[in-house]
Design goal:
heterotrimer, A: 489 residues, alpha+beta, Uridine Diphospho-n-acetylenolpyruvylglucosamine Reductase, domain 2, Uridine Diphospho-n-acetylenolpyruvylglucosamine Reductase, domain 3, Alpha-Beta Plaits, five-stranded antiparallel beta sheet, four-stranded mixed beta sheet, 17 helices, B: 488 residues, globular
Chain lengths: 489, 488, 421
């Protein structure tokens, strides 16, 4: 239902005529649905005023950042947070940065690298909001999931401004927990289906020491950049192993000995995507690399705080790899390839090559938590991809999965996806079936339960978390104005 | 009120006590909260008993006050706020359920103390990131649920660390397992496929353990918890750095934590270090204090399985570059206390008597979180307030702990006093109140509000309280769980 | 090509937003990270390339839904191509082409901008994109420049509309003539026989008007027997070199931008830059000399059925890699006393001056807003002057300077070269 004139005027009073539109012609730019309106608030006060109006008029809203993903029912008011794009603070002494929703990771990362820091850029890519929750290539050093947020400024679905932790009590961003129980428990900017209702208008994220350069010495033109030199005390390698067991053993030893700046469990197909500039080249390079690797593997970046530190780490890396019969991929030892992988895999700037370039779509099963357990499951899920590859329905990546240790192997992440042409109905169905079957197998065999699965089955097996979450949402959003399904990407 | 027969039927005769003397032990603690005698004490021996107790409490509107550690208690959180309460003393649930070296995780019941877990974990080659010298009777779960700071900030990725998962019976009577422990399947089924209970987030997008932490038992009763553990190093090289001013030490600590070159790392003032290491009281204490610089930074460089000595020496070299730049010197001993002795001491719970009680028998802690830039002003504020109160400044113990990999600082003032001396008691009580007030206005964040000051602290953030109350209504709709605490 | 032919490309867009920013590796902080003026100014996703692609794909399925806002989106775009460079770092898909075709489709359906209609009417009447006063070749009076339609020349200097008619820009024509004369080049101009290249008409969506101009120009060129064309206008350069080729009109004509030609002359020892020009400068890459100046690639083929978006024969994409970036920089480096400091957004991911896509005519405020962003970036380098290589850039950047009150100077590179000879 369109906004009434009175409603439109009320929102327009908040954001100005230029920042509200109900013109249907521009809506497909966001999503294939009829939004009631697109509104572009410019600050927290405007978000709050809009949310209060949504309650007054009983209109549903969803916030978005870059607008990459999300599910948006008809007649929703879309709060496009694009104008909220400021880095509020970079606190070097206490290692955190405060951002608005439309600051993308590439911007924040460039700023903090100048100051000798890095942060958890999500694997989805550096083109996403810096305040996104998630996992990524840097997790070995920068952690992931819900563990990087500090204080958050949150406009609740009823339009109250809640400032979590130290922010609410002491006007400081360094801590998001307390006083007393932590409402950070429910402040999560994860992807659907369950996201906190309301709008996050600012968030503090943890920063981590960065042993690399203030900026990479990039040369050349897109799409083929190279580094003029490998930055001092840095090194990138790809190692393959004769078995999953040996790969896992090497991965956990590297974590326990705190050696790697990055340990990204790429498979050869993903390396090929990263280092090639088009689909055709990728197929050729993948075929070559498939012969070069001896089995599963991972990509490693070593970063030393000093020459001695670097040499020590290198020595331990080589010893652990040797003990587990690992083999370094010659392709990556080429300084040109090594350099660009160093850059791309720390700036997380080639995720699109890994996912969308081939066919335009991918369906994924990501699992966070215990790496050794999820690897066991992923082997089977990889085998189940093979018939689809044979039929030409999905891109041939050797049936591989990928993943990495988080927090030096304390936690982990494993993911497996199928890349396909979304215009091909048969491929789309086959991939969706694979996704359902493998998620179901994980559930019945007790590896994990994907919360993307059927809630009536998954919920009871996970302490009825869905019912609790629904209760929370209902308590926070009595007018039901903030439905799930949008994502702060 | 729950009938005695029912309690006995649920928990067994030997686990229910109405003995006045015993009840008096729970009626007060070292803090200044009002004494309120509970109705009785129940010591459950299983999760099922806890669940039945909570159900019964809901039926009869009986307040339940969960306790896991043994006395002496310090914060008032285990003293009932209202009459008619049943103390749920978890100390009999003492199983160390699991210690897993490969996954660096342990799982214990609420009654397990640090000393007990340290011994069990050490056998497997792992250890817990400890708070600074917990008292012998302190339980691991009690500490984890209070979000106590830990002495290895490098391994504290999140303020909830090292807590992993918990099993909790909410005030509503519902059982819930948080994080990876939630499922699918029972814990035993998870073990069977090689799963452990370690990832703290979920199920779903919420991080349920964060609601239980810091709640002082107001949301439910935890019946076991798992926690991440760290490897025991193959080589360790501890150091101390003394200074008259803590600002340089704090800067050094920040760099050490940022570069992740040290494990244990904290700053104490001479009052506290002397209180920990004085052997003969009180003569030794004063002499030790006099021999120490005002501020002492302790840190420990460690190496693991591969080339441990090489790692230690490379770190020491890098650290020396920093200490030279800052104009301080790292040494192996200070005021007659060796760095090795400090390391050995802080890797265990406190010897008896508890170090905070050795000097005068009583101690009141003022603890808060802050950022580096504000700390100096807050410490000045504290000492100004101390001066006005007449409390001897030199008796104020200070503990500065970098937290969460350097994103903040835990600051703790320890006010030692003689509990038998009414005037000292009054002075410390008034000082405590005045100091919290003054520190609050100077930006201190009291993330763990205890006792008398908790209202003053909580009132500063009405918006958060409003959300917390909504959560509380869901998890403990009848407010049977430790009513009167935090903001409930 | 019609919009339908880019259906697959438009459907490939995953809304990742890379098109809104310069290539991710090149982002140096929170400043100067945006690539697309349109989304930077108007904020709605529809104004980004991703938004335009998704609207295009939707229109192919559901029909065009013309509304004032849609037309606002369509015409408030400089078609500068920065979006395509950023997208094509990772993706194999056309970006600027479908956006251009969407505008063409609007034009075909009569959904034009009245201000642009007026410009095209003028073009049809006068052969110029700018108001005409006097004759095209008036600026050359007394300069002893050959008439290429009458005398045999090695090089035809195509002057362009703005440089020919705008009294403030005629200095560029004179500079170029002086440089070519100094180097002893046998060149000439077409004078009144020169007509608009049509490039800007194409950008505005008037394909027929463009083709008419292109045909007239090539007829004259063929008649004159010219083998090499040099121009100082980036729009003209892209029209002759790329668009004419795209429509199979260019033949064997060698098209050079004046910066390429001067670079050649310097490197061949035919032009000596001896005089000192003490100036700290930064260089603005005109879009149609840089990323859009790379050669057209003729291709036709079909998607190979299956999992990947690949074609038979394989399709090579124009990703901005082969634009003209180094020659102007080499020329600047050859001028004694000139110190070049680069801005953040340069070469293939340069920020547009605002003058492209007809925006100077349809929405001059937006053009100036865009130029102002560039001025801010230039000032951040500490440079005294912003050097460019296109009269349209110079004009728009100067307007922004005037509006903002900045003391920054704007020069065309030929002005500095002339000073140095």
């Amino acid at each position: 239902m369109a906004l009434t004139k009175e409603q439109y005027k009320a929102f327009e009073d908040v954001v100005g005529a230029e920042n509200i539109s109900d013109d249907k012609a521009i809506m497909p730019a966001y999503y294939n649905t009829d939004f009631a309106a697109i509104i572009l608030p410019g600050n927290t006060a405007e978000v709050q005023a809009c949310v209060k109006l949504c309650n007054k008029f009983k209109r549903q809203f969803r916030p978005i950042c870059t607008g990459w993903s999300g599910m948006f029912p008809k007649d929703l008011i879309l709060l496009d947070l694009r104008r909220m794009n400021h880095i509020i603070e970079i606190n070097e002494k206490n290692m955190y940065a405060v951002v608005e929703p439309y600051v993308i990771s590439a911007e924040l990362q460039a700023e903090v690298m100048k100051r000798g820091f890095n942060f958890c850029v999500k694997g989805a890519g550096t083109n996403c909001s810096a305040m996104l929750r998630g996992h990524g290539h840097l997790d070995q050093t920068t952690s992931g999931d819900d563990r990087n947020h500090l204080a958050i400024e949150w406009v609740t679905p009823e339009g109250e401004i809640v400032r979590s932790g130290a922010l609410g009590s002491a006007d400081e961003w360094f801590c998001g927990d307390g006083p007393g129980p932590s409402i950070r428990a429910i402040l999560t900017s994860a992807v659907p289906p369950g996201v906190t209702p309301g709008v996050f208008t600012k968030a503090a994220v943890k920063l981590y020491h960065w042993p690399g350069p203030a900026a990479y010495p990039i040369q050349g033109h897109s799409p083929k950049y190279t580094l003029s030199e490998i930055p001092p005390n840095m090194m990138a390698r790809y190692y393959s192993f004769p078995s999953v067991e040996k790969m896992w053993n090497a991965e956990i030893k590297l974590g326990e000995n705190e050696i790697c700046y990055e340990l990204m469990g790429f498979n050869a197909a993903m390396v090929a995507c990263n280092i090639t500039t088009c689909n055709e080249e990728e197929e050729v390079v993948f075929a070559k690399m498939s012969k070069e690797v001896q089995g599963p593997g991972f990509f490693v970046i070593i970063g030393g705080n000093s020459r001695d530190d670097f040499e020590f780490k290198k020595k331990v890396l080589e010893q652990i790899v040797k003990e587990n019969d690992g083999k370094s991929l010659k392709t990556v030892e080429n300084p040109e390839i090594e350099g660009i992988l160093l850059c791309q895999c720390t700036r997380i700037s080639a995720s699109i090559r890994e996912t969308f370039r081939a066919g335009g779509a991918f369906n994924s099963i990501p699992i966070m938590g215990q790496r050794d357990l999820t690897i066991k499951w992923a082997i089977g899920a990889g085998k189940a991809k093979e018939p689809l590859i044979k039929k030409g329905l999905i891109v041939d990546d050797g049936g591989a999965f990928f993943g990495w240790g988080v927090e030096q192997g304390h936690l982990g992440k494993t993911e497996i996806f199928c890349k396909f042409d979304p215009q091909n109905a048969e491929a789309k169905k086959a991939v969706e079936d694979w996704q359902k079957e493998q998620s179901h197998r994980a559930f019945t065999e007790r590896y994990f339960a994907s919360t993307m699965g059927p809630q009536d089955e998954i919920g009871p097996a996970l302490m009825n978390y869905n019912l609790w979450w629904n209760k929370i949402v209902h308590a926070l959003d009595p007018n039901g104005v903030s439905p799930e399904g949008g994502a702060l990407v | 009120m729950i009938e005695k027969e029912k309690l006995v039927k649920i928990a067994g005769t030997s686990n229910v006590s109405y003995d006045r003397a015993q009840l008096d032990e729970y009626a007060r603690d070292i803090s200044f909260v009002n004494a309120v005698r509970p109705e009785c004490v129940v010591k459950p021996t299983s999760t099922e008993i806890v669940q039945q107790l909570i159900k019964l409490a809901n039926e009869t509107a009986t307040p339940l006050v969960p306790v896991s550690s043994g006395p002496p208690h310090f914060r008032g959180d285990t003293v009932p706020s209202i009459g008619g309460a049943v103390i749920v003393d978890m100390s009999k649930m003492k199983k160390i359920i699991n210690v897993d070296r490969a996954r660096r995780v342990a799982m214990v019941e609420p009654g397990v103390t640090f000393g007990e877990l340290i011994a069990a974990a050490e056998k497997e080659g792992i250890r817990l990131n400890l708070p600074l010298l917990p008292r012998k009777s302190k339980t691991v779960i009690g500490s984890l649920l209070e979000r106590e700071p830990v002495i290895m900030p490098k391994y504290q990725w999140d303020i909830s660390d090292p807590l992993a998962c918990v099993e909790v019976i909410f005030g509503s009577g519902d059982e819930f397992r948080t994080g990876q422990a939630a499922g699918p399947g029972t814990v035993a089924e998870q073990w069977k496929v090689g799963g452990v209970q370690k990832a703290p987030y979920g199920p779903g997008v919420a991080s349920w353990h964060r609601i239980i932490q810091g709640a002082q038992g107001t949301m439910g009763i935890v019946t076991w918890a798992s926690m991440r553990c760290e490897l025991i190093p193959k080589a360790e090289e501890p150091f101390v750095v003394g200074a008259d001013n803590y600002t340089t030490l704090l800067e050094l600590a920040s760099w050490l934590v940022r570069l992740r070159m040290v494990n244990e790392c904290f700053i104490l003032n001479s009052t506290n270090l002397a209180a920990i290491f004085a052997k003969k009281w009180t003569k030794d204490y004063q002499a030790l204090k006099d021999a120490l610089p005002t501020w002492i930074l302790f840190y420990n460089v460690a190496g693991y399985e591969y080339l441990p000595e090489e790692r230690v020496s490379s770190f020491i070299k890098d650290i020396t570059d920093i200490t030279k730049r800052l104009g301080v010197e790292a040494v192996k001993a200070i005021g007659g206390i060796s760095a090795n002795e400090i390391l050995k001491t802080v890797q265990q719970p406190s010897e008896e008597p508890y170090w905070k009680l050795r000097y005068k028998g009583g101690c009141e802690d003022i603890l808060f979180l802050t950022i580096n830039d504000k700390l100096e002003g807050q410490i000045s504020t504290m000492f100004d307030t101390v001066k006005k109160s007449g409390y001897p400044s030199s008796d104020v113990g200070v503990y500065i702990q970098p937290i969460v990999q350097g994103t903040g600082v835990h600051c703790e003032f320890n006010l030692f006093y003689d509990p038998a001396n009414a005037s000292e008691v009054n002075r410390v009580k008034n000082l405590n109140n005045a100091a919290v007030k003054a520190l609050l206005t100077n930006g201190a964040f009291f993330s763990r509000p205890y006792g008398e000051n908790s209202k003053m602290i909580m009132n500063r953030d009405a918006a958060t309280i409003s959300v917390l109350n909504k959560l509380k209504k869901m998890f403990d709709p009848n407010n049977v769980m430790n009513p009167g605490k935090v903001c409930f | 090509m019609a919009l339908e032919q880019y259906k697959g490309d438009m459907e490939m867009c995953c809304r990742c937003s890379a098109c809104k920013f310069i290539p991710m590796q090149k982002i140096k902080g929170s400043e100067f990270s945006y690539a697309c003026p349109s989304i930077a100014r108007y904020n709605y996703h529809a104004y980004s390339a991703g938004g335009r692609m998704n609207i295009g794909a939707h229109a192919l399925k559901n029909g065009m839904n013309y509304t004032p806002k849609l037309l606002d989106v369509v015409y408030n775009c400089q078609l500068c191509g920065a979006c395509g460079v950023s997208c094509n770092y990772a993706m194999d898909m056309e970006v600027l082409e479908p956006i251009t075709e969407f505008r063409m489709k609007c034009n075909e359906d009569g959904k034009t901008d009245t201000k642009l209609d007026k410009v095209i009417d003028g073009l049809k009447k006068t052969g110029s994109m700018v108001p005409v006063k006097g004759k095209r070749g008036d600026w050359a009076t007394g300069l002893k420049i050959k008439d290429a339609t009458k005398e045999k020349v090695d090089v035809l200097f195509h002057v362009g509309c703005l440089t020919s008619y705008d009294p403030a820009m005629q200095k560029l024509a004179k500079s170029i003539a002086a440089i070519l004369q100094k180097a002893g080049v046998n060149f000439g101009i077409a004078g009144d026989a020169e007509t608009c290249c049509g490039g800007r008409a194409y950008q505005m969506g008037y394909k027929d008007a463009f083709l008419a101009q292109a045909k007239k120009n090539m007829e004259m060129i063929k008649k004159a027997g010219v083998k090499t064309l040099v121009t100082g206008c980036a729009d003209g350069y892209q029209a002759f070199k790329v668009l004419y080729d795209q429509f199979d009109l260019k033949g064997d004509l060698e098209v050079l931008h004046i910066t390429e030609f001067i670079d050649r002359l310097i490197k061949a020892g035919k032009l000596k830059l001896n005089k000192k020009v003490n100036l700290n400068v930064t260089y603005h890459d005109p879009c149609r000399l840089g990323r859009l100046g790379e050669p057209w690639i003729h291709w036709s083929g079909k998607k190979i059925p299956g999992d990947r978006f690949v074609f038979d024969p394989p399709k090579e994409y124009r990703r901005g890699t082969k634009g003209i970036y180094q020659p102007p920089r080499d020329v600047l480096k050859s001028i004694p006393g000139v110190k070049l400091t680069e801005m953040t957004r340069i070469m293939d991911y340069s920020w547009c001056c605002g003058a492209g896509g007809g925006v100077t005519d349809s929405n001059p405020d937006f053009a100036v807003w865009t130029a102002q962003k560039r001025i801010e970036e230039a000032i951040s380098t500490g440079a005294e002057a912003l050097v460019t290589a296109c009269p349209w850039c110079e004009k728009t950047l100067n307007e922004a300077i005037k509006a903002s009150g900045s003391s920054l100077k704007v020069y065309d590179i030929v002005e500095l070269v002339e000073r140095a000879i």
